[in-house]
Every structure is written in structure tokens, then in C-alpha cells.
Amino acid sequence: xxxxxxxxxxxxxxxxxxxxxxxxxxxxxxxxxxxxxxxxxxxxxxxxxxxxxxxxxxxxxxxxxxxxxxxxxxxxxxxxxxxxxxxxxxxxxxxxxxxxxxxxxxxxxxxxxxxxxxxxxxxxxxxxxxxxxxxxxxxxxxxxxxxxxxxxxxxxxxxxxxxxxxxxxxxxxxxxxxxxxxxxxxxxxxxxxxxxxxxxxxxxxxxxxxxxxxxxxxxxxxxxxxxxxxxxxxxxxxxxxxxxxxxxxxxxxxxxxxxxxx
Length: 262
Known about the structure:
Blueprint lengths: L3 H31 L14 E4 L7 H6 L3 E4 L22 E8 L2 E8 L4 H12 L6 E2 L2 E3 L4 E5 L31 E3 L3 E4 L12 E6 L1 E3 L5 E5 L1 H13 L7 E2 L6 E9 L1
Parallel strand pairs: 1-2
Antiparallel strand pairs: 3-4, 3-14, 4-12, 5-14, 6-7, 6-13, 7-10, 8-11, 9-10, 9-12
């Protein structure tokens, strides 16, 4: 026979489990909204897959309520004072290569400083300081948009370098369709943001399959063939929870990130 005390404990346990489930669902929806808030930071919503710093710049309290699913950072930038962006120190007429040595394989992509000077300069500055070394690619999406999101020093989708950089090259992918979207082709590397203009930091997303998104995420890199195959293998393994938007099932860590002039 179940005693009243046992029954109380059972009810308390069931209540706790329901709360945890609701919180997990809230975080999932929040990530979707942030990722593609217009498209990659509201990521899974077809063009809203929160590539916005998919929660990248959300506070933990905000995350419980809602995060994003697009390439946007999330829905809000950090409130602390922002540091100044790096002084221009690259050859704006040159091309650069960002080489990522990851736990899942090597991924390299080219960057054209003539098209995205602020973005390339920022990534060169951060890489030189070993900012990306030891960081995790915290998000993999497989519905609506198809990306691996990286560049968060916290590994939560809410971190950044402490400053923001302006959007660049937004018209490079053509004229938006009736839904206000353009196709980010497989092999594209673009900036995550919070869904607001000029809110990019250090988070970026690697596109492993053509993805329709709003033209709100600076496209600044082109992945080489070998790197694209690495991404496709990561995507095949899916997410840790079996969903369409979450941490990769097999953790992906950037062991070293270097930027060199070609």
C-alpha cells in the first residue's frame, strides 16, 4: 500500500519532471527564435532558424523563456558595456583562410577582405588571440535550415567577444523571394546575430546544405570540399537529443582556429 508520505513524494517528483520538461521546451523554442529571427537565429522556422546568435547573446533567464533557432545570436545582446571592435589591421584587398582544426576533422574556408573587411579583420584579431581554441560548436540544425553554429566561448549560444561588428555583403546572395528569403548555399559561412542590424560578434554558422534565410547574416566565407564533407558527417550523426535543433550528438570542439593571408 502506498502511504500518504510516499504519495506526496511521488506527486512532488512528477511536478518537478513537468517543470523540467516545460523549461526544456521553452529553451528549444527560444533557440529557434534566436537562430533565425528572420532567418538563422530563429533557425528551424524555415528561415527563422536562429542563427542569431541563437541564443548566443541571450541571458540565461531569457533563455528559459525563449531563445532562437536561426543564425542570429538570440534575441538580445549583452547588457554590459561593449568593448571597441579591433582596429583595422588586415590587407583589405587580400583573401584570407580560416583553418579550423576540430575534434571531428579539419574545416577550412576562404574569406575575401574586399567584400567583408570588418568581419575578416575581427576574425583575424580573435584567432590571433586564440579566442576560438577550445570552444565548442554548440548547435546543429536539420530542419528549415542546415547549419553547424560555432564561435561561442561559452558553448551555450549566449557568448561573444564583448563587441559587435557591422553587417556586410548582405546583397551577395541575390534578391529575396516573396517570403523575404535568399538561399545560403551549402559551403557558405555567415555571421550569427541577434536579429538586429549590426549585432554580430564571434558566432558564425557553417552551412552544409542549401538553407533559405532572410538576407540578414553576413556571408563571409566559402568552405573547401574537404571541410564540407566533415560537416556532412557531423550532420549525419544528428543531435544529442535526437531533435532537429540542438547540440551535436558527437561533440565538436575547435581545437585550434587560425587565420592566414593567402
